[in-house]
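Hello,

Our lab assistant flagged a job as stuck in the queue for most of the afternoon. It eventually completed. Since we weren't sure the result was trustworthy after the delay, we are filing this so someone can double-check. Below is the sequence as submitted and the structure that was eventually returned. Let us know if re-running is recommended.
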Amino acid sequence: MTAQPRTLYISALSGLALCAACVPARKFEEVKTQQEQCEVGFTMLKNHNEELIARITELNQVLSNLTKRYEGLVTDTAVLGKSLRLMKSNYDALNETYELLLKNNKEMLAGSRTEADKLREELQNTLNNLLKQQDSLNLFEGEKEVKPKEGEKSSFSPTHPIVNKSGDS
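-- returned structure --
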């Protein structure tokens, strides 16, 4: 081929390629509008994603705080439960000791009353013996009989409060 037809051939091919490669203006505008819409949508989704990430971070902090409080409450409940069981055990032991103390106190009071009655009876017997001995001593020595005159009372009287068995004073 000569230079002229060759140039013509290249020009024709170039023109054909140019025609085939050209996009109509309407199609170009549609694609451009779609690209702008996609960029706006992408920006909106990106902003929404950032907001959601911030919200997730915030909720994770709240969850962390609630978890710490929950663990604290569980520990506190365990301590209070242990304390309550110990206090109940101590209360039961104290109540048992109190019941034993009441029982011992009743026995001791009953024993002291019996002992007081015995001592009162012994004192009465001793006093009676002393009065008898004094009377026999007075008779033995030949002294006057110890008889109280009318209106006088003997200092050793069976109705004396110490001697009186009934405990009246």
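-- support follow-up --
The delay was a queue issue, not a problem with the job. The result is valid. The helical segments are 3-21, 25-141. DSSP finds two helices and no strands in the chain.
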